[in-house]
């Protein structure tokens, strides 16, 4: 019942903001496709196949990441620090787990929505994109993980500026480095291994994993689930104490 | 209905609430009166589980209050001091969300929304976004929202602050109607008139402590029923008296403009805290 209440609210919000959400989430992927696909991509080759075909899964990964993260992060942060509507949920007879899960799932839906938009765009740009159940699984897990990160960051930060800081120092670097626009193999050894541990790297690898061995294909979702679980537990823990 | 025992809240060096003991009876309209910074909001926030206690205990209907005990939270309705409506949702949607969060079945939810929109006079604006509302309408919607799930205890934190006098009077009528339904109300205010008009008992709060607790009438009687106000050396002075005769005796000795009037809660407050309300 509590879960339904939170999802209902997100649905009302989505319906009201449909066009601004839809158009807003298409801008940066279109720019990436133009800049890296048409502009740079003409003659370049990376990771086998045409460059544009290489970067599409990367763009799916990074866009679903930012969409989920900021949908939920901003919603919590505005609700806590600006509109104070967070209080309404804290006062309600609502288990904080239910609140967290409702918000995170709603954020993941927002990520998935923008994911499907890119896939549609990619088809318009006539790229080759291979969608299979494992691809969808990775996309869903990526959305859930970054939605949970958005939730926890939204609960922990002390000001709007902190949210921007987190985006600048954590989210944006990940968007470019985690195997999204170029393969990890091109990086120096130490850095490569550090970056391999980041959740978005697992998504990038997973989204392109056709042909990888079963061990790797098990690791990718497992690592994401681990991140998701840890971050969510942390978020709920602080939510129970948030003022 | 509400039992507060030895409640303290410390913000670093500041003691916002200082060993507060208070009992509010079932069906009572109780007022916490005090100047800004007295600790009223902190007290309300602790009862509604928004702020963790430093020490002490709060119980509502015999149950200890805690963020993670959902049963007791259902018995409480809260109208905070600041606006916390969902601004991008309509009045109707704000109430609907609340009803859903409090597990109300669809039918009773919808009936209650209609009833409360009627009660607060917001029927015509039901489907407008909350951010388009005036201050008074937002406050009314917040009251409607707090009443949605039929709480046993209603917490009102300065419900008329920032409203113009005409709207404030309308709000008082609305609030008076509430207590007739047997609801227990805890209201905070720094308007003495408000406490005098609405409350059966008043607790005077200052510096996080309860300095006095009684009915408005008895508090007034305690410090004197009659005030002589006069102007001397650049400031207005007031002296309180038990009887009109004593007051007249002083007034006769004074030169210049002298005013004799009945005392009110403001005089009580001044007398007890040596401080003008709101200063
Ligand atoms: N979050 C907070 N952090 C630090 N001090 C606070 C906080 N909230 C309130 N205070 C302090 O506690 C005291 C009581 O404040 P408050 O309860 O808001 O008073 P009132 O509602 O009676 O005006 C004030 O001195 C205020 O500065
Ligand atoms: Mg206050």
Keywords summarizing the entry:
heterodimer; A: 243 residues; mainly alpha; 78% helix; globular; B: 279 residues; alpha/beta; Rossmann fold; 2 domains; six-stranded mixed β-sheet; four-stranded antiparallel β-sheet; 13 strands; 29% strand; binds adenosine-5'-diphosphate; binds magnesium ion; membrane (chain B); ABC_transporter_ATP-binding (chain B); ATP hydrolysis activity (chain B)
Summarize the structure.
Chain B: It is found in: Cell membrane. Chain B: It holds the Pfam family ABC_tran. With 243 residues, chain A is an all-alpha fold.
Break the fold down into its secondary structure elements and pairings:
The complex is a heterodimer of chains A (243) and B (279).
Chain A: H1 2-16, H2 18-40, H3 51-81, H4 86-91, H5 96-124, H6 133-156, H7 160-177, H8 189-196, H9 199-207, H10 214-239
Chain B: E1 2-11, E2 14-24, E3 29-33, H1 40-47, E4 55-60, E5 63-64, H2 70-73, E6 76-79, H3 91-101, H4 106-119, H5 135-147, E7 153-157, H6 165-180, E8 184-189, H7 192-198, E9 201-206, E10 209-214, H8 216-223, E11 226-232, E12 235-241, H9 244-253, E13 258-262, H10 265-273
Parallel strand pairs in B: 3-8, 3-9, 6-7, 7-8
Antiparallel strand pairs in B: 1-2, 1-4, 4-5, 9-10, 11-12, 11-13
Helix pairs in contact in B: 3-4, 3-5, 4-5, 8-10
The complex binds adenosine-5'-diphosphate and magnesium ion.
**Shape type of chain A:** globular
Pair with the biggest interface: A-B, 26 and 30 residues
Distance between the termini of chain B: 32 Å
Shape of chain B: globular
Find the structural class of chain A using helix and strand composition: mainly alpha
Largest sheet of chain B: 6 strands, mixed
Strand portion of chain A, in percent? under 5%
Q: Could you describe the 3D structure shown?
A:
With 243 residues, chain A is mainly alpha-helical. Helix content of chain A is 78%, strand content 0%. Chain A has one domain. In chain A, helix 2 (18-40) crosses helix 5 (96-124). Chain B has a six-stranded mixed beta sheet, sandwiched between helices. In chain B, a hairpin with a 2-residue loop joins strand 1 and strand 2 (14-24). In chain B, helix 4 (106-119) runs antiparallel to helix 5 (135-147). Chain A binds chain B through residues 1-2, 4-5, 8-9, 12-13, 16-17, 83-85, 87-96, 240-241, 243, and chain B through 48-52, 67-68, 70-71, 73-74, 76, 78, 80, 82-89, 93, 96-98, 100-103. Chain A: This is Transport permease protein. Chain A: It is a multi-pass membrane protein. Chain A: One of its GO terms (cellular component) is ATP-binding cassette (ABC) transporter complex. Chain A: One of its GO terms (molecular function) is ABC-type transporter activity.
């Amino acid at each position: 019942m509590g879960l339904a209440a939170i999802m209902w609210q997100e649905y009302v919000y989505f319906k009201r903001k449909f066009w601004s959400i839809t158009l807003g989430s298409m801008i940066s992927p279109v720019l990436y496709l133009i800049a890296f696909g048409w502009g740079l991509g003409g003659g370049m080759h990376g990771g086998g196949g045409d460059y544009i075909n290489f970067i599409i899964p990367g763009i799916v990964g990074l866009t679903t990441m930012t969409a989920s993260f900021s949908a939920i992060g901003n919603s919590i942060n505005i609700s806590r620090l600006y509109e104070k509507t967070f209080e309404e949920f804290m006062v309600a007879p609502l288990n904080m787990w239910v609140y967290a899960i409702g918000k995170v799932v709603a954020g993941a839906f927002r990520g998935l929505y923008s994911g499907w938009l890119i896939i549609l765009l990619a088809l318009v740009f006539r790229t080759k994109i291979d969608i299979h159940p494992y691809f969808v699984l990775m996309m869903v897990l990526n959305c859930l993980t970054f939605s949970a990160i958005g939730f926890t960051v939204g609960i922990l930060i002390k000001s709007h500026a902190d949210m921007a800081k987190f985006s600048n120092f954590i989210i944006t670097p990940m968007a470019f480095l985690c195997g999204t626009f170029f393969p990890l193999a091109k990086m120096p050894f130490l850095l490569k291994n550090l970056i391999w541990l980041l959740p978005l790297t697992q998504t990038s690898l997973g989204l392109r994993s056709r042909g990888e061995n079963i061990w790797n294909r098990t690791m990718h979702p497992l690592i994401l689930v681990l991140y998701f679980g840890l971050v969510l537990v942390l978020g709920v823990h602080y939510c129970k104490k948030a003022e | 209905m509400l039992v507060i025992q030895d409640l303290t809240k410390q913000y670093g060096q500041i003691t916002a609430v200082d060993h507060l003991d208070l009992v509010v009876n079932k069906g009572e309209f109780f007022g916490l009166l005090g100047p800004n910074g007295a600790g009223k909001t902190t007290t309300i926030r602790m009862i509604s589980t928004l702020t963790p206690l430093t020490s002490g205990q709060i119980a509502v209907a015999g149950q200890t209050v805690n963020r993670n005990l959902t049963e007791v939270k259902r018995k409480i309705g809260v109208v905070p001091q600041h606006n916390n409506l969902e601004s991008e949702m309509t009045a109707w949607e704000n109430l609907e969300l609340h009803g859903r969060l409090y597990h109300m079945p669809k039918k009773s939810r919808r009936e209650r929304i209609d009833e409360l929109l009627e009660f607060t006079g917001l029927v015509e604006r039901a489907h407008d976004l909350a951010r388009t509302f005036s201050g008074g309408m937002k406050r009314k919607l917040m009251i409607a929202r707090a009443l949605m799930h039929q709480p046993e205890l209603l917490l009102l934190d300065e419900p008329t602050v920032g409203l113009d006098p005409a709207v404030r009077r309308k709000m008082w009528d609305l609030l008076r109607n509430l207590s007739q339904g047997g609801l227990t109300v805890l209201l905070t205010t720094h308007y003495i008139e408000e406490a005098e008009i609405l409350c059966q008992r008043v607790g005077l709060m200052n510096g996080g402590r309860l300095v006095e607790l009684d009915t408005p009438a008895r508090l007034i009687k305690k410090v004197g029923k009659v005030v002589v106000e006069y102007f001397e050396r650049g400031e207005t002075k007031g002296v309180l008296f038990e009887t009109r005769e004593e007051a007249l005796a002083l007034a006769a000795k004074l030169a210049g403009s002298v005013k004799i009037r009945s005392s009110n809660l403001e005089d009580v407050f001044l007398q007890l805290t040596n401080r003008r309300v709101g200063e």
